[in-house]
């Protein structure tokens, strides 16, 4: 069952300001903040304020919300210093479930970019 807010969830606590974070962006539905252990020159997370545990719980009702998240990502990437497409750009990552490498069970998208050599290949 999806609840709006889980008092035991780390990212719900971050949204509520109970745990400090470095903000990138916020509106009624989303919060973006810097990853505490960046693995790229630009590395922040975008989360819906709604407590959705992962992509595995998404339903058709979330389609518009997730669409807006995807539109937000490139805007914030540019604002945070990712260089323009196509020479610049960024990578999105959404770990889902234990086998997907998910550690925090509140849906989030990693936005990673900035000058190489952080990314191989
Ligand atoms: P995932 O669940 O996709 O594996 O990753 C969770 C991400 O959240 C990790 O990259 C980790 O560094 C980040 N993270 C975990 N705890 C905190 C925290 O308290 N504050 C912030 N800003 N990031 C966190
Ligand atoms: Zn949560």
TrEMBL record:
Coiled coil: none annotated. The active site is at 108 (tele-amp-histidine intermediate). Gene3D superfamilies: HIT-like. CDD domains: PKCI_related (cd01276). It comes from the Bacteria. Transmembrane segments: none annotated. A motif (Histidine triad motif) lies at residues 106-110. Residues 10-121 form the HIT domain. GO terms for molecular function: catalytic activity. Pfam families: HIT. PANTHER family: HISTIDINE TRIAD HIT PROTEIN (PTHR23089). This is Histidine triad nucleotide-binding protein. It comes from Rhodoferax fermentans. The lineage of its organism: Bacteria, Pseudomonadati, Pseudomonadota, Betaproteobacteria, Burkholderiales.
